[in-house]
């Protein structure tokens, strides 16, 4: 897409094409509302429940679009990625639907429940050491040996286009939305959402929600270039990645603000999702609600007129034991 | 409704009228599906998520219909009930919407979170001792002093008609449903659902799910008359009531079977709702999933051809502490 001389990795056409392509396979997730949460936040909130998506997170949209876009020759050799998170399971599921192999390089020490998901969806698990260099080394060996196509979790135009379908659906479901709050990690989801939403409704505000212990997006926007953190520390295990060269330009140009949240605020929001909305949301997924309720958002005069806010609950894959532990320790 | 010489307290017309009346106030709750749960159960399951209803349970439909059906003179004096459960909160909320008082007699020892809900929705709490005789005595004093109208939680035609709107919505959302599984307690929900569903689709099967420690409906159907249990013992705190004279004829005539579940099966289903569907469902609300997965349902040749099953997840009001405790103790 050409805009101010910039090219982005996706645009409204590629997102609409992705929607047509993946529609038969993805859930059109419902939008929930709660008068209690409206009254607590002082806004009208519309929760887009991607935790109900197949595989338990929005990741299936992008993975599905990437897999379905392969030509027959590429597809035959399968797809690969290195990830211990929701993208690994989503890619396995997308490959299963197409009947092609998925090779997933998983670092030792990855959470059992996420590895179980990969296996359940028929992905082939290849173990690596937990360091990034080992992951990349093993992955490149797998690519070489199998001839499979690497599907990056976010730095990929097809993946960004797939994630953008969240916004297409949301704005079709609730026309009056004036703001969308989206968790930010590598930037695949928010890039797709921003490109779709600002094309449909140029006045819409796109706000990122980021944990304090992994605030590289906020730092990057302040610095005007991609900042990578040497260490991250947050309960939101899905929000530790850094921006890529395809997501950064979109985040730089189209994301209006980044709200930074403490882990304790994220846990509180997760608890409200469960107790008030009756929805199980993982920490990375609940951060958008935490942002709406945060003092820094509420007191910012720029966001006073955000009245109808779409909040993307991006995923629901949380281990029940950790959930109970985190509630107990935050009492 | 006349059927085999029997009159029922509601019929498809009163249910459709209720639907028109309450539509502006209730959530049209979404229907969720899960390929994992389809594969585990060997059927196509359609989860009607009444846990997302206002007040966290289907109860708001009946309470709302009852309150909105009062004439101005009756309404002015308010409504009353004695309950420590979801009906109390639902009635308070319905009264609040109409701007009329709700007097709720609450037995001492009622769960704090449910009393909090009543207060949050503006109901006036009047305490009684925990015995049924004290509850009734206090309630009758309240009725006398205030001139308010008693709204029974289930033995009331308007309440039954309101609950029946669950089936109207479900059959509009998913036409191919051939069976609906509904939790049974006093019988208000299942009576409304059975009357609506069998009128729209006479071939549909209506199956009740009941906890073993409160199996009065199964015993009543076997005996051909209302059986009241002296003691009940189940984790499903919403399913301890006995059938009333308005719900019994419908349960007797239109409910095709009662599946009885152990508490451990209910807890397991509650856990699957949370981990697989990502939905927080209280024990009484998860019992329908437990029924579909139970050996007694799976091995019963009469239900072999139940292919597309609506499962009503009736409520989601569960205290997070008890939730974590019950999962820990059932490990």
Can you give keywords for this protein?
homodimer, alpha/beta, Rossmann fold
Describe this structure in words.
The structure is a homodimer of 331-residue chains. The first copy, chain A, is an alpha/beta fold and 331 residues long. Chain A has two domains: 2-57 and 156-329, Rossmann fold, CATH 3.40.50.1100; 78-147, Rossmann fold, CATH 3.40.50. Chain A has 15 helices and twelve strands. The first copy, chain A, has helices at residues 12-22, 35-41, 59-68, 72-76, 86-98, 112-120, 132-146, 157-173, 188-200, 216-223, 248-254, 263-277, 283-293, 295-298, 320-329, and strands at residues 2-3, 6-7, 31-32, 44-49, 79-82, 102-107, 124-128, 149-150, 179-183, 205-211, 257-261, 308-313. Chain A has a six-stranded mixed sheet with strand order 3-4-12-9-10-11, sandwiched between helices. A four-stranded parallel sheet of chain A has the order 7-6-5-8, sandwiched between helices. In chain A, helix 9 links the parallel strand 9 (179-183) and strand 10.
The chain-level structural class of chain A is alpha/beta
Largest sheet of chain A: 6 strands, mixed
CATH topology name of the largest domain in chain A, in short, is Rossmann fold
Q: Please, how many domains of chain A?
A: 2
| Percentage of residues in helical conformation of chain A | 40-55%
Instruction: Name the assembly state.
Output: homodimer
Instruction: Assign the CATH class of the largest domain in chain A.
Output: Alpha Beta
Strand content of chain A: 15-25%
Q: Tell me which CATH architecture of the largest domain in chain A applies here.
A: 3-Layer(aba) Sandwich
- Poorly predicted regions of chain A are 1-5
What is the helix tally of chain A? 15
| Whole-angstrom Rg of chain A | 19 Å
Family (chains A, B): Belongs to the serine/threonine dehydratase family.
Pfam family, one (chains A, B): PALP
Keywords (chains A, B): Lyase, Magnesium, Pyridoxal phosphate
Protein name (chains A, B): Serine racemase
